[in-house]
Amino acid sequence: KNDPVTAPDLTGFREVNSSPSSHVSWGMYHVVIDPDNMTAQLTPLRGPAFTANVTQFMQPPVSPTNMISLLIDGSSDPGSGYFVVDVILRHPFPGLNQYNGFDVRGILIADASENLSTDPSAIFSGPEDTTLINADGYSRWWNWQEFTPYNTIFGATQGALAPPYHPTGTLNGYKYFADGLGADEHLGNLDPSTRGFFTTLPGFNTRTYEIQFRTDGGGTVFDFNYAVDASWNEPDPGYAPEYPQDAFAAEANCAEAYYLEVTDAGSTAWYVDDTNTGGSLILDIEVCDWQAIHNVQGVPGEISGLWLEGEPVDSTIDLISIASTTDGSDTSSVYHVEITDLNLSHSGENEIWIIAESADPDTYEPNMDGFDTSPWDWCESPLAAYLRTSVDITGTQTQFAPEVTSIDPNQGNTGASVPVTITGNYFADGCEVELRESGGSHVVEPDDETWISESEVTCTLDLMGAPTGLYDVAVINPDFLEGSLEEGFEVLQPDVIYVDDSNTTGVEDGSMANPYDTIQEGLTAATSGYEVWVDDSDSTYGGPITLKSGVVLKSVNWDTDDGDDEATIYYNVTSGAAVNGADDATIEGFEIDGRRYGIDCNGTSPEILDCRIVNLRYSDCIGIYLRNGSHAHLDGVEVYDLNNNTNYGYATFYGIRIENCNESGGENVLIEHTTVHHVFSSDIIGLGGGYCYPHGIYINASNGVVVKNSIVHDVTGGNYHYTYGIRVNNSSDVELVNNVIYDIDKTYYYGTVYGLHFTNCTSLDARNLIISHIHKGEGGTGGYYQSAYGVYQSGSTFTFEYSDVYDCQTALYQGLSAGTGCISANPLYVNAGTDFQLDTGSPCIDAGDPSILDPDNSTSDLGAYGGPGADDW
């Protein structure tokens, strides 16, 4: 071999077998363009940065300037500093196939003034700097600031013939040169099977550069530095002398990703002004890496980080943590991301950067076995590939028609009330839902429509009168754009037995034509899974009624010839209840008018829905009695107008009484959206209801009971003894959340009034309550020997927090103190006594436990209309 040649001002080249991350420099030049005669002058700063067995290449008459030619296109505009330049790059070792190159990049290096936030040492061209407009990517290789000291093979060496010019840019745009890649062809069209091969024969390729030059006080500055970067590794000698592509191992390609591409995958981001902006960026980011084909993990195994930064986001986004990944090809993967946390400041093109960091190697450090590289400096940032591109942000709020993908459940019985959740995309706040009969004209307009998010809406389908069959599920946005799921819901005909006491045909078989005339007959005929529909015929049905397991008993005005309200069950007998419960049974929509007990659930656990229990008159009357292991569920129930009758003193009576009902097997008593009111002591011979104990709700010796989003009001005692809004005794793990207790009082002297009273309880949890207007009597002696407490406890462990206790004549608290978040202020109801929703300006709005949210995802309100169940009344 010939000895290496030492060029002026250059450290002598050495013959080596490997190079830093396979990178070698094929040359570095100072370029000056003359706008007057449209020519370019290239001054070589350095030739190929490794020793080849071709020392004559470094000697005259062959000169490194022959490696590159620039042809200026006529579409250039010298006056504005815009130039279109065809760069013809020649292989520095023509005919020497062992030096076939890979991933050859012509890098335009110039002054720069902007930094990446991810890495402030990455300095790139700003609006006033010289910029390669159509860069295939950006690279840090061979920049003047980081590859030092000069005059070594890993430095950005200054040539003897060039003027002193050390550009400040460390992140510079490049064009990619490869056989088969046309001058104007997009890099994405590169055939991956070619591995970006640049052969020594024919040994030249052309790429078109669009350059916008910078200006200074004297006009446009038409100079820059130009580095040629290539990748190479010693080939397998068994392939000599042709050395085709297969002769070179994967290490011959660059270690970092060779190509990055961003595709908009349906972004919805929009910007009108700083207060009117939203949507998300939805992007597919393709990362191409040659080594992926040899990695069992593919591209994800070749990169250690994938980052996005730029104008639309406030801070750098870790894309790997939010992306779903699919294979694009043998050498690429596509990262699909949706970015919702945007910080938009303008519409139109918003610049972004994608940074793909290499996993191994992860630095620019030279890798040269047997050589001490400590005297050399290199970029200390992670080895990475960079893409500078932009995303388009629309200047108008993006409007998309809703897409309905599912409804759950997707069927229900005609006549039923069915809560459903509809999922899809592009649902707008305020959207409406419709069921449209497929092939028919019937339309179901749901109740309680609640917008949860752009992909979820809930509502309740009232299927009364809905013909059986399939229905389209439509979602209509406020802008009238709509979408539907064709035949997404089915209305079924349930197994129904009909009851109507106006049937005078003499024939009773439970059909609509020949209904039973008593409820119990209908229940007896029904089997599990059936519904018994009872028509209101302007008269009452006699009790007692015993529910049946697996059967739904429902008040339905199916016979429109008579009646238009709830069917009524009447039982004016003191020996029992108007209705007796059964496990896995349901009673819905009835008015129950009894004497002693309205509904008695003795060891049974029915659902009691939307029923009214009224007008009970007895010394121990109970609206609803849950006892001995009952796990009944009450929702939408109203219990009112209960008293001891004028004939009874020493009476104890209850709106709802819960006794010996312990949670088991995940089942417990649950009371929600229920109101108990006007439970009162009736006068006894002028003594004002003497010696009576009226209760709104009483829980005794029961564990795991939950009472939420419910109201107790207008519970009134008379002469002597005690009056309770809610009383909890000898129980554990009871939850009282988002309830109202209002106007609990006495009318005559002696005795005590309690809003909430609990004794000998463990782990009682009470929060988000409003307890107010707890008063001593105004009659008789005007409160003589009386007390009135908002909350009273004795011998208990409890949590009492985030509640409003107000206007309690003796004391707000007895036996405990106000807990975290408790206040004492007028709750400001819309209409106290009839409408317990909070009026505008109420101090109870957003005053609840911050861990409990209202349906609009704000901090919960106090009272019965706060928390997750606020909208289910």
What's the overall average pLDDT, rounded? 88
Rg (CA only) = 42 Å
| Helix-residue proportion | under 10%
Sheet with the most strands, sense and barrel status: 11 strands, parallel
Proportion of strand residues: 35-45%
> How many H/I helices?
1
Uncertain parts: 1-20, 50-65
Output the structural class: mainly beta
**Beta strands, count:** 67
Strand order of the largest sheet: 35-36-39-42-45-48-51-54-57-60-63
CA(first)-CA(last) distance? 93 Å
Shape: elongated
Q: How does this model look, in words?
A:
The chain is mainly beta. It is 1% helix and 42% strand. The chain is built from one helix and 67 strands.
Question: What attributes characterize this protein structure?
Answer:
single chain; 11-stranded parallel β-sheet; 67 strands; 873 residues; mainly beta; 10-stranded parallel β-sheet
Topology (SSEs and partners):
Elements: E1 23-34, E2 39-46, E3 68-72, E4 82-90, E5 101-109, E6 114-115, E7 123-124, E8 131-132, E9 137-139, E10 172-177, E11 197-198, E12 204-212, E13 215-216, E14 219-220, E15 223-231, E16 259-264, E17 270-273, E18 276-278, E19 281-288, E20 303-310, E21 317-318, E22 324-329, E23 332-339, E24 348-358, E25 384-393, E26 403-408, E27 411-413, E28 417-425, E29 432-437, E30 443-444, E31 447-453, E32 456-462, E33 469-476, E34 482-492, E35 496-499, H1 519-525, E36 531-534, E37 540-542, E38 545-546, E39 552-555, E40 568-571, E41 577-580, E42 586-588, E43 591-594, E44 597-602, E45 607-609, E46 612-617, E47 622-627, E48 633-635, E49 638-643, E50 652-659, E51 670-672, E52 675-680, E53 693-700, E54 706-708, E55 711-717, E56 722-729, E57 735-737, E58 740-746, E59 751-759, E60 764-767, E61 770-775, E62 786-794, E63 798-801, E64 804-808, E65 811-814, E66 829-831, E67 835-838
Parallel strand pairs: 27-34, 35-36, 36-39, 37-40, 38-41, 39-42, 40-43, 41-44, 42-45, 43-46, 44-47, 45-48, 46-49, 47-50, 48-51, 49-52, 50-53, 51-54, 52-55, 53-56, 54-57, 55-58, 56-59, 57-60, 58-61, 59-62, 60-63, 61-64, 62-65
Antiparallel strand pairs: 1-2, 1-15, 3-4, 4-12, 5-10, 5-11, 5-15, 6-7, 8-12, 9-10, 13-14, 16-19, 17-18, 19-23, 20-21, 20-24, 22-23, 24-25, 26-28, 28-32, 29-30, 29-33, 31-32, 33-34, 66-67
